[in-house]
Amino acid sequence: MNKSWDKEYKNMWNERYMDNDFVYGKEPNLFFKEWLQKFEPGYLLMPADGEARNGVFAAQLGWEVTSFDLSEEGKLKALELAKENKVTIDYIVGDLEELQFNKESFDAIGLIYAHFAAEKKSILHKKLNDYLKPGGLIIFEAFSKAHLTYNEFDPKVGGPKDINMLFSTAEIAADFENYEILLLEEKEILLEEGKYHIGKGSVIRFVGRKK
Known about the structure:
There is one protein chain. This protein is of the alpha/beta class. It has seven helices and seven strands; from the N terminus they run ααβαβαββαβααββ. It has helices spanning 3-17, 30-36, 53-60, 72-84, 121-131, 147-153, 169-175, and strands at residues 43-46, 64-69, 90-93, 106-112, 132-143, 179-193, 197-210. It has a seven-stranded mixed sheet with strand order 3-2-1-4-5-7-6, with helices on both faces. The longest helix has 15 residues, at 3-17.
């Protein structure tokens, strides 16, 4: 992926998060909320956390949250949301390719609609794996390859328009092969998250525990 595409992608997210509204709402993703509450709080990494609706929710449960995203505008909204909810999160603006965290330093990683460039996504998943402690958890929800049809029918449901940025259960099983699978499924769901995730879509859901 060339640098001009990276810059264009970053600009797109900055423009989106300049909106006065929280563009995916202030409430956490329902799947993330359901699963995170099952586990004892610890250190949580939230890649592509945007306006931090999920990171802030986790902090309210007592997790020590490190969020990151490409967007400076996302960070401003995230810190506003954290203040509103009387919690703190450590929010970094940066690209996962360039960021470095200590090996095996997180108890959980939340990957909620963290869609990476097609040729990078498996590489970045492997990199994230290194940051997770043995016994640590991945909670993942993102659009499936089948979602492209849903997006074409109703663009309000959102999601990448490049099928190679979307996921299959086979890809996730391969990327996280050293995990006990607690859940791995492709599912049609109804999304109601702000103004960019509205309507019926197809997602991959995965919860795994690192062996």
